[in-house]
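Hi! If you just cloned this repository, the fastest way to understand the data is to look at a raw example. We've pasted two of them here, unedited. The first protein comes first, obviously.
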Amino acid sequence: MYKNRPANITEIERSATVDPFECTTEEDESTDTQDENEPFDNEYYEIFEDYYCPDSDPFQDANFTQPINDSQFLWILLWIMNFRTRFNLPGTATESLIKFLKLVLTEIGGADFDEFPDSLYMAKNILGLKEQFHSFVVCPKCHKLYNKQEVKQFSQNANLSVMRCRHVEFPNSTTRKTKLCQAPLSQKITLLNNEVKIQPELIFPLASIRQQLEAMYCRPGFESSLRHWVNRQQFDNILTDIYDGNVWKTFKESTEENSDIFFRPDVADTHLGLIINMDWFQPYDGTIYSTGVLYAAICNLPRDIRFKRENLLILGLLPGPNEVSLHKINHYLAPIVDELESLWGGVTLNKTYESQEGKNIRAALILVSCDIPAARKICGHVSALVACHRCEKKANYENRKHNFAGMDDMREWFISRDADEYRQNALGWRQYNSDAARKRFVKQTGIRWSELLRLTYFNPIQFITIDPMHCLFLGIAKWIVKKIWVDEGVLTPDILKKVQKKMNEFKVPSDLGRIPGKVDCGDSFSNFTADQWRMFFTIYATVSLWDHLSSNDRKILNHFVRICLILVNRIVEIDSMKEAHQRLIKIVKLIEANYGRDKITPNLHLSLHLCECAYDYGPLYAFWCFSFERMNGVLGIVFFVSYLKK
């Protein structure tokens, strides 16, 4: 489709005095000045920055060994591995457990257990478990990917040497087309025996989507679970899951006008819909180190098992210590998109539980569900501080801050953006040959290139949802209480003590989740999680706050509590969604009228699109990020953390 094949934002409510369009280094700024007025050269007009992933060995391991089924202690090892998974045991704890059990078994059974493994590595070999993933070396400056063996074996004058990055960011620039990144990809270390070893600076572990799907298809009951949605009862005015959304009902299997619907009963277990999520977490205690992770979930599975650990696809771990900035995320997306393209065309699994002779499957990425900065980063949209990615609304810049005030002309801007125009603008961004030119283009269009656009079916407007966990609870709920009612003096310290006293009178069932913490201590409402904000507004807020609010604030509270009660339901009536939308509009107008235009944040505007997302993908419960967030805690303990250390 494109010639030369595709060769830091934190909280969006932060101060907008920092330029939300680009983050450039001093070196970038100096070269921008040099190339700022550089004209296009027709010879290089269609030559773009190369995000292409280096060649590597196939994911299929020809030497893979099947588990030893005749071992007398096989059941013990299976129990240990299940125990490890159930209680999130790290590798060191599991290894200690294996060593202890060998001592006990040897003492009891003598020589019969001499072959019992004494390490986690040996236990995995007996069970036939192997960590099947690629490890790419990452440039710490530009994030270009390199073959790991090439970097570790790089030599000059017959001596192992440190390889430097050869990436060219602007091959279409007449002055910068030969400017290499030149960042070192590794470091040379000398071992105690004076042996020289090359240690890569950063590693990007990448798992195969196809290989993970093959393992899932070999599980009993997996294929029948994929088909469950075919026989489910449907209603005209009720949203119960993603299958009631417009995308599932209308998504076609090709771009041809008369093509069949992709998700049909006859291909219910072979045509898969994927949700992708990207998030960052802290894997180490006592230090600031952000590691990124890309997940995928299978929409075909029932909601109650869709986000279970065994049914999630781990696509890759992005190395730290900092989040990758802006369009450089494309280097990590490129190999994943390669495989998504292959899955869209169709692949053949060697065998499944129901089909020993193999099965042809296809898969499509139909939903990006992340927090707002992550979703915009991987899809190429500008910061939420300055423009909406779903409609034509642009932020106002007043008092050195951005805001989304102005509801009187809603009919003029509450219009869905055009996906085809977005693709053209994204391609236009790639054609610019300097950071300064790209920055000016982003200010005009609000768009950068994303590797996801190589998926011809991908809709960069409709397929990006507004996550209610971050928007409603960590965004609006927190903003209303802390930035409006507390900061504006509505809820004073004395009032907060009365609020806490009232909250202490509640008797809440333990199965509802973690009870909100103290609201009158330290920085009031500090460290509330999204789930605690949800509980506070749906259970505590009305009774504990009502007597301390003015009439207008009571209206805001009443509207927001009702909105939360509607949107968190697992089954939602379409009429109720319309009610929630109208109440959200009223909240925005009330806050603007009573507290000023600068209080209208991006989250308040984005909430106006939550109902659209529900019409496209069913109730918010079907795709919100709570389930993905829970996986971060698991990964921080057990999943390949050692591979990200230098």
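Ok, and the second one:
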Amino acid sequence: MNYALHLMFFATFATWAETPKIRVSVKAIQGINAVCLSNQSTANNVAVYHSNNPDGDRTHLLLTHNRRELMPSSKSNIFAPYSETKKYWLNMAKKRFHYYAQQPTKVLVEPLEVKRWVKDGDLLKAAGMKFQVMATPGYTRESVSYLAVVDGKRCAFTGDLIYGDGKIFDLYSFQDAIPEAKVGGYHGYGARLADLVSSLQKIKAWKPDVIYPARGPLINDPAQAINKLIGRVQALYRNYLSTNALHWYFKEDRMRICGERVLGKGAKIDLMPYCLHLDTPDWIIQFSTSRIIVADNGHGFLLDCGGKNQFETAKDLVERGVVKQIDGIFLTHTHDDHSQMVQAAAEYFKCPVYTTTEYKDVVENPGRYLMPGLTENAVPNVEGMKDGETMKWHEYKFTFRYFPGQMIYHGALLVERPKAKPVFFIGDSFAPSGIDDYCLLNRNLVHPDAGYPLCFKIIRQLPKDTWLINQHVPHVFRFSDKELTYLETQYAKRTKILSELFPWDDPNYGIDERWSTFYPYGNIMKPGETREVEVRVINHSPIKRTFKVTPRDHRGAKVLSGPASATLASRGEGAVKVKIQAPKEPGVYVITADIDSKDMHFRDWVETIIEVK
């Protein structure tokens, strides 16, 4: 992205309005376009997106949406769409466990004092100018755009609706529920892309001459950029549906409802036919999202234990003698419908719990992470197995694999039994209709050696005629070579679409909200306690990058260390230490940090929650 060249023009752009007394200027501040419309005769200003004007009472600030990185650093008369943030962090301290709403956490740390909440159809008059408010949801649920005629030009201030020449800032912000298809937020991949398409069409119909976005270069050919973006998101969603595991779970009618929202009524929607699936072998006991492998001597090995019913079923099987005893538990991944009762089961059966090393820490310390569906029930002393490590259990051979399919913290277990077809327990990563990548917050990376590309390679390396088991599917199944090739080809096409959709030098920044994150994410601290935390960063880029981390205080929660940097090789991971001190007053506090690198500026981008007790 040649953003520097765009920015040189963008930051110096100025024009004069119908009377030569309105001046429009743009200055990029930490990645946000601070647009200022100055009335030269009255010294009153209208700012859009961001204002650093120290004479704040003379500035009217128009906010298109309520993301914290857009927040003003001076007092202004703020106009914004309504959004409830007052109790967000108090609730989030607890709701981050079993979290399935799947909305980004770039929420205001403190509520703003808003002069006026705006809505679709409002007409604002400020500093001698008129602005029409148009509801343009998409990037956020409540987003609006402001439309005005300046110097005879039709100007649209559209927030994060569109970036540059037909791009968007990220995709994970579009995750949401689809009520008409009975699809919840967790399963709503890119759900608000439907709103995005509708909002873009509304903006295009208004026929703007220029779009001032919240970030990125000025858009001087709005119609072309809008058409390009609509084409890209529709191609993306069509591709997503073509390999979608939800076709198995939710069936064709509901998937067509999802598709027509983005692609249009009557649009052609391709869904992968179900692959071969048969009854589960009798040496595997299946119940809900758990399975028990049974040895010839009656001993059992439990895979996952997600709820009370699963736990009680496993106990009952042992008590009735169907299974002699449980020798061990393998946890396929960290979602609570597989992990909630693992610790209770391990204590009851007095057996070890196994994972691969890649997600051992998440299982032992779930409160240190923010991911969908985490349980608060930590499992101590997990046996972390290396990827590819084998173990003999009675007549069986187990091979433990890191298998980042449905989510990044995911494993799989290859089970080989004499005179039987091998079985590969894959958690929730595939179904007979495709792949389980419906939740962007699960972090499905698209690097060739990560995420589903890695899973495809592992499946191709399996012993001949290996069956797959997804514990939500009451069958064993397998893909033919043709079907697997189709999945690989479609996923490669999607990666190309994503590369064109975002302004970054690697598409993973646009799908991986946690490429930078505080660790621990949650902290329970005593009044006045000091602690060292980390801001962890993944360099997804194909080049070496230096990332500067600038932490920010919150009320009485103090940052005792200054900005620091980490230089990371391509695909490297690193961390910056941050020393924090808890306030003396009990409560919930949030410390944030800016992340900056060349052509990448993210204000208040990551957060850590402090609960003072």
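That's it. A detail worth noticing about the second one: The domain at 512-612 is CATH 2.60.40.10 (Immunoglobulin-like).
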